[in-house]
Design a protein that fits this description.
The chain has about 250 residues and is of the alpha/beta class. Helix content is about 50%, strand content about 15%. It has helices at about 25-35, 50-55, 70-80, 90-105, 145-160, 160-180, 185-195, 200-205, 210-225, 235-240, and strands at about 15-20, 40-45, 60-65, 85, 105-110, 125, 130-135. It is an enzyme of class 1 (oxidoreductase).
Length: about 250
């Protein structure tokens, strides 16, 4: 069986990340994981000024002066971690850390060797206040191309008023459908019926959120009544308008 990496969004709050190497790459990875909510520990013989400055202000970012080639001393730190990031410029140290992390069955992000890394750090972009997130990677083949691909995707999506309207309409639809129709097996097909409705699609393409919500309300009311649930289009529309923010994924 050929090994295949699968794309995932991981919740990092409460997770622990060990970064081996306090240089420029280690600094970027440490701050990236810390920003995502992980507790981060960086080990090395030296640390960037940025890391030192951030560590002084953030108790969840810890710097430990340690020779990473001493695997006996490094072992407890690897055991502490959920993810180990390898980011030194010493191939021998990187190899030793990789072997130790693998022996202890820790996930590895090897910033020095794309072929053996288990976790890929992609180029990302966010739209609509973070509501739509996109990740792009070439899995280490060329970061330059991945970065340009991300920027082209941003240029394409930022100007798409129809997509933004679709996003804004459907995040209101989701909590209303969950409220009106408890069973997922009944509820899920309705999302597709809304999306396929000609009036809804026309409103979305024109960027009219108001008309898109009225069309969605009509479809939801029809489907609810078909399931024996009493709901009028006007009632559903009022519910859609009352939704103030998207459902949190957490």
């Amino acid at each position: 069986m050929v090994a295949v990496r699968v794309p995932l969004w991981l919740e990092m709050s409460g997770r622990r990340v060990l970064v081996v190497g306090g240089g420029s790459v280690g600094t970027r990875r440490a701050l990236w994981f810390r920003q995502a909510g992980a507790a981060v520990r960086v080990v090395g013989l030296s640390f960037s000024e940025e890391l030192r400055r951030q560590a002084e202000e953030d108790e969840s970012l810890e710097l430990v002066e340690l020779d990473a080639s001493d695997t006996e001393a490094l072992g407890p730190h690897v055991e502490w971690a959920d993810i180990v990031v390898i980011a030194t410029d010493n191939p021998g140290v990187n190899e030793a850390v990789w072997r130790l992390a693998r022996e202890l069955r820790r996930w590895v992000n090897d910033a020095t060797d794309a072929e053996r890394t288990e976790i890929v750090v992609p180029y990302t972009l966010e739209l609509y206040g973070g509501g739509l997130r996109v990740a792009v990677t070439t899995e280490g083949r060329t970061g330059v191309a991945a970065r340009h691909a991300r920027d082209k995707i941003r240029e394409c999506l930022e100007g798409d008023r129809g997509l933004e309207t679709l996003y804004e309409a459907m995040w209101r639809v989701k909590p209303v459908l969950k409220r009106l129709i408890p069973r997922a097996k009944d509820r899920v097909p309705i999302y597709y019926r809304i999306d396929e409705d000609p009036e809804f699609r026309d409103a979305v393409e024109r960027g009219s959120l108001e008309e898109a919500l009225r069309a969605a309300a009509r479809v939801i009311a029809q489907e609810a009544q078909r399931l024996g649930i009493d709901a009028s289009p006007d009632e559903v529309y009022r519910l859609l308008k009352s939704v103030e923010k998207p459902i949190s994924p957490l």
